[in-house]
Specification:
Low-confidence stretches: 1-24, 29-52, 467-472, 568-573, 577-611
Protein name: Heterokaryon incompatibility domain-containing protein
Shape: globular
Helix content: 25-40%
Structural class: alpha+beta
Mean pLDDT: 81
Oligomer: single chain
Largest sheet: 9 strands, antiparallel
């Protein structure tokens, strides 16, 4: 008898992406759940069917946002080669109370879930599994449920993935070595790594390790698009459950490596984040030092890579540099994976990339639409940046031969300049235009246009040193100390508007707010980068907003040099929150005054005896925009991201000073800056299409 369809209200579908909606379709995984021993006793003593038909009750009104203690299961509906395909041994309650029907989910899946929950001493009572917790009938309710799965796995405190390939005792030892980084050596004082002496001297062991990783990542679970999303959205918490054979030697090794493999019966419980990090480092090292393993490494990286490691460059001075957003790589990794409908990938990509603008995949399935072009439209509508500099005929033809995912990977902007951070992708992923409209001319968006003209360098060596080097100021105080010096220089130069704006910022920074806004976080981050440039003796550049006939005044401080040229300095590590103490500014002012009047400025300039060079360089033009993410409400969860852009541009045609309406802008390079634009309206600009996307066949 087929399972009666549950009502949408009795399932988790997070209608309209309701934030923290009740996980109405959660089923109870409590080991104390009703087990029908009577049916088990009816089996003959010689029966080989030892399955116990457990009953799983539906939990109504479960609030996932308030309680993350539920297991979100990532699994493949089709049985893998090593899976037992039998089902029906477990019953799940339908929308009708106490109406239990045999589940189509494989019995082995329920058993493995039970093993995992048992290892947590019965503390985990609830399970979310898609076949029972999402409306399966095609329609808007199913679509809403599928597009909200990022919430399900993101909110779960216990997401698990069920791999199928069993491993033996030798594999367990080898896998433990991989996860513990035995094959990798990290360079002292650097982010770089290479193969360890063991890996170099024992080439066969290294090859065996790579073969094991190929075998693990060849599992059916790694080939599905939906499981990619489930893994990606919960990787920091997800556990990979790898089944193993029953073997005394294996159990001994597993017990010895309990911190690595956990204690679940019949399972190696591996932290997904650790697996992906170690695998990525090993594969990248093999690609550099073992050409014969490069192809194998690429295949593994296509399934199990950590983007923070994969997409970064390592500089000689040990800085972490990442010039790319991870969106193109996400799209590339999802493209070859399987899904029932090609259009499903659009929802998966939107969830993983945090796209608030969605396409109607139901309409895409019904009509004769190109999913590839829909993907490109989705990418651009959500503000992702594509290069648009002119190309010659041959370059355009090369672009036209690419798939959409390859085009996105190769032609997306790849010159981001994130602040010094251990997680630069968090910055890069938000580098997007806001409120994009696709027009015949290109991408229409709004922001501010800046003209950068005055370059200067702060003579920090001429300012008072700290009073007591044995007790250096705290990191946050140091930043304010430097900014106060910069403010003083700007006053001496006679640029009162920008000096006053900087003074306001310093004053606000003295009062820390735990619930700071995105704009304040971003401004603080840029302030730290300005201080970094000062410490590196790099020039700064003042910029003013172009607003047609309005008076031009400097309202921004920009950093023209790329961040990889700056030395590592803990005082301005942007991973740290900071809120200044008044002694930093007060000590500075007590030594050379507050600089509040033009007369005292002049006197102070003479007493310190420094001059500021003002070269008449060609101006640089910059486009900036920012938009805090749309916050979720009781009725919606937009899956938005904070957006920010600060990029050097050129104008196609008219001079930007002429105030041309909706100028055409060509992207050049990223330029960070501390900007004060409050009270200045945004203006519309157009970034023309990439040359390969136009009908113009000429150069």
């Amino acid at each position: 008898m087929p399972n009666p369809p549950d009502s949408a209200e009795e399932r988790l579908h997070l209608s309209s992406r309701i934030k923290g909606a009740a996980v109405s379709g959660a089923i109870m995984a409590d080991p104390r759940i009703d087990i029908d021993d009577r049916d088990h006793n009816k089996r003959g003593a010689g029966s080989d069917d030892t399955r116990s038909p457990g009953k799983w009750r539906r939990r109504r009104g479960y609030n996932a946002e308030a309680n993350s203690d539920y297991v979100a299961v990532s699994w493949t509906w089709n049985a893998a080669q090593d899976d037992d395909p039998r089902s029906g041994g477990y019953k799940v309650e339908t929308s009708l109370k106490d109406d239990f029907q045999p589940s189509k989910v494989r019995d082995q899946v329920f058993e493995r879930i039970q093993h995992y929950t048992d290892a947590h001493s019965g503390q985990l009572k609830y399970v979310w599994i898609d076949q029972h917790c999402i409306v399966q009938k095609e329609g808007p309710e199913k679509t809403q449920g599928m597009q909200a799965m990022d919430l399900v796995y993101g909110l779960s405190g216990h997401p698990i993935s069920l791999l199928a390939r069993r491993i033996n005792s030798e594999d367990v030892r080898l896998l433990a070595d991989i996860l513990e980084g035995v094959f990798i050596t990290h360079m002292t004082g650097s982010a770089e790594f290479r193969l360890s002496p063991l890996a170099v001297s024992s080439s066969q062991v290294l090859e065996d390790a790579m073969k094991l990783l190929e075998a693990i990542t060849s599992d059916l679970w790694w080939s599905r698009a939906w499981t990619f999303q489930e893994k990606y959205l919960s990787e920091s918490k997800m556990k990979l459950l790898i089944p193993h054979f029953s073997d005394k030697e294996l159990e001994k090794e597993k017990k010895h490596k309990k911190k690595v493999f956990g204690t679940a019966v019949g399972e190696l419980c591996v932290k997904s984040i650790d697996f992906h990090r170690q695998v990525t480092q090993l594969c990248l090292a093999c690609k550099k030092e073992r050409p014969n393993l490069a192809a194998s490494a690429d295949r593994i990286l296509g399934k199990a890579s950590n983007y923070e490691i994969l997409l970064r460059d390592t500089a000689p001075d040990a800085q972490y540099l990442t010039r790319w957003s991870q969106s193109p790589r996400i799209i590339k990794d999802i493209e070859p994976r399987e899904s029932k409908f090609c259009s499903d990938r659009l929802a998966i990509i939107a969830n993983c990339c945090q796209y608030s603008i969605r396409l109607d995949d139901v309409k895409l399935r019904r009509g004769n639409h190109s999913v590839s072009l829909a993907l490109l439209a989705l990418y651009l509508l959500n503000g992702e940046m594509i290069k648009n500099e002119p190309l010659d005929r041959e370059q355009k033809q090369d672009c036209l031969q690419k798939t959409v995912s390859s085009f996105i990977e190769d032609e997306s902007f790849d010159g981001f300049c994130p602040p010094h951070s251990k997680k630069p992708l968090l910055f890069n992923n938000g580098c997007r235009f806001n409120n994009v409209v696709l027009t015949p001319r290109g991408m229409l968006t709004k922001g501010h246009l800046w003209k950068l003209q005055l370059r200067f360098q702060v003579p920090i060596e001429q300012f008072p040193s700290r009073k007591d080097d044995r007790n250096p100021l705290a990191r946050q105080d140091y930043v304010l100390w430097r900014l106060s010096q910069l403010q003083h220089v700007l006053e001496l130069l006679g640029y009162a508007p920008i000096a006053k704006e900087l003074a306001k910022f310093i004053d606000k920074s003295l009062h820390f707010d735990d619930n700071e806004s995105f704009s304040r976080w971003y401004t603080r981050t840029m302030a730290k980068m300005v201080v970094a440039a000062m410490d590196a003796h790099k020039p700064l550049c003042l910029g003013g907003i172009l607003e047609g006939d309005s008076d031009f005044s400097y309202k921004g401080i920009f950093i023209l040099d790329d961040c990889e040229e700056f030395p590592v300095c803990s005082e301005w590590d942007t991973d740290e929150d900071w809120s200044g103490e008044e002694d930093a500014v007060g000590q500075l002012e007590s030594e050379f005054g507050s600089g509040s009047s033009s007369d005292s400025d002049s006197e102070r300039e003479h007493s310190y005896g420094f001059t500021i060079a003002k070269p008449a360089d060609e101006p640089i033009y910059v486009f900036t925009s920012s938009k805090p993410k749309e916050e979720g409400s009781r009725n919606s969860y937009p899956n938005d991201i904070d957006k920010h852009v600060s990029i050097e541009i050129e104008s196609q045609g008219a001079r930007l000073e002429d105030g041309y309406h909706r100028p055409n802008l060509v992207t050049k390079r990223w330029i960070n800056g501390l900007c004060f634009f409050r009270g200045h309206p945004r203006q519309e600009v157009v970034f023309p299409w990439h040359p390969a996307l136009t009908n113009n066949r000429g150069v």
